[in-house]
Amino acid sequence: MAKKKTSIKDIAEALGISITTVSFILNGKGREKRISDEMTKKVQDYIKKIGYKPSHIAQSLRLGKSKVIVLMVEDISNQFFASIARLIEEKSYKNGYKIIYCSTDNDTDKAKELIGTFKVRNVDGFIITPTPGLENVVKELLEEGVAVVLFDRWMPEVDCSYVIVENKTSAEEATRHLMDQGCRNLGFVTVDSNQTQMMDRLAGFQEALKGSKVHSSILKVKFHTIAEQYASQRILEFLTSHPELDGVFFSTNYLAFEGLQALIKLGKKIPQQIKVVSFDDHYFFNLFQPPISAIEQPIEEIAESLMESMLKQLEGTGQNENQKIVLSNKLNVRESSVLH
């Protein structure tokens, strides 16, 4: 027969005190409730002696806090999101919180379902890379007093804390770099999306071309999973139908991976025949021959800013002010975009 788990009531009876007194001490409210240090030590020594561990669920119901934060990203297997997740996990743990990760696959219905699932589990906060059409759900979370921080993208219709990077400025810088290297027929390959980060990267590309004599061609591909071959085929068709391109800028690293595969199939020499730059640096870009020029996002700063903003909300030190943080990127110029 299984041994019965010790309850707060059992502890109270063993020590001859009230259940309420034990509860206050277990929840760190002994001093606040004017319980003597002697009594507090008596309870703590006893629970240590018997090896008592409070129920996490019951404790979260009593305190109204679960000490759990949900990190909801587009794709946790993507290096950018995985790197952010690892740093956030480390920073959360140091502050007494645990992290739950999940991927939305940029699917709004899936995102809504996940948020609903975690809400009933009384999680303390959400760090979200929002999917299209998630505005009302996020507004509801905020109205219910749930801590929310958006990252990688934001929603103009929602007044909410967010941490993003200078997408437009960096895309403009990368495009000007290609132009400075002599490119006069530029291609831009991006995701077909009206989300802020993708719109800003496209806007940066177009801004750099204003007033120049550089010709441009733009390919927008629908969001897809890694297993799908859709983008690879579309990029191959795009490059085949635009043989005049002497430079191409990929708005994400996963599009760049498939673009490089297409360029190899076409026998294009980089950078002699076509120069390449990608948004969102990746360790693979240093291994590729030639190494690929790319915009590096400040992963450590992003994670730090996300946790700082989240903790201010959770600990009530933010004075109800939303933090809207925009961080700078770095263009790492490598051999793929420079002729020596």
Automatic annotation (TrEMBL):
Residues 6-63 form the HTH lacI-type domain. Signal peptide: none annotated. PROSITE patterns: HTH_LACI_2. InterPro entries: HTH_LacI, LacI/GalR-like_sensor, Lambda_DNA-bd_dom_sf, Peripla_BP_I. It holds the Pfam family Peripla_BP_3. The keyword Transcription applies. SUPFAM superfamilies: lambda repressor-like DNA-binding domains, Periplasmic binding protein-like I. The keyword NAD does not apply. One of its GO terms (molecular function) is DNA-binding transcription factor activity. Keywords: DNA-binding, Repressor, Transcription, Transcription regulation. It comes from the Bacteria. This is LacI family transcriptional regulator. It comes from Cecembia calidifontis.
